[in-house]
Design a protein that fits this description.
Length: 164
């Protein structure tokens, strides 16, 4: 399965982000918009949750010191740039958008709830605990099944009592 995603990351106080240098985070959460239309498709999201390797992309530097809490997944939709342009308040100019004309693909939010609120339409929510169950072998699903069976944003908000 291919598509777009938004990673909701609990920020470190500061992080070194490759050539962009040292970055101080003035808000608790960030959202990074990406897409997965290559051969691995949305398996890329699982890689982000399990990041432990060397840093190649801007997001790798942030995941090295931050904590990925959830991913909003847009199956079969190419929304990386339209989501970024819709949010419209870039945090680090040039972050994650070297292959397009967007200002940035990274945005700051005060709370998890505020970051989660960018998810609308046909979006699935894969949080860290569901990812960890999958990776730990506690469920016998394929990645496509895992994504397909994940709750949509409104069901997730209700189940977790997240205010809109």
């Amino acid at each position: 399965m291919k598509g777009s995603y938004s990673l909701i990351i609990e920020n470190p106080d500061r992080a070194k982000v490759g050539a962009l240098g040292n970055v101080e985070f003035r808000k608790r959460y960030s959202v990074y918009n990406g897409s997965a239309f290559g051969s691995g498709g949305l398996k890329r999201v699982l890689r982000h949750f399990s990041f432990s390797g060397g840093c190649h992309w801007h997001i790798d530097y942030l995941l090295k010191t931050g904590c990925l809490k959830a991913a909003l997944i847009y199956p079969e939709q190419d929304l990386e740039c339209s989501l970024s342009n819709k949010i419209g308040r870039p945090f680090i100019e040039g972050f994650g958008c070297s292959d397009c004309s967007c200002e940035s693909h990274l945005f700051l939010f005060d709370s998890f709830e505020e970051a989660l609120s960018i998810g609308s339409g046909e979006v699935k929510v894969l949080d860290k605990s569901r990812h960890d169950e999958y990776v730990g072998g506690e469920c016998e699903q394929t990645v496509d099944d895992l994504i397909r069976d994940s709750p949509d944003a409104s069901s997730y908000k209700k189940a977790c009592r997240v205010d809109e």
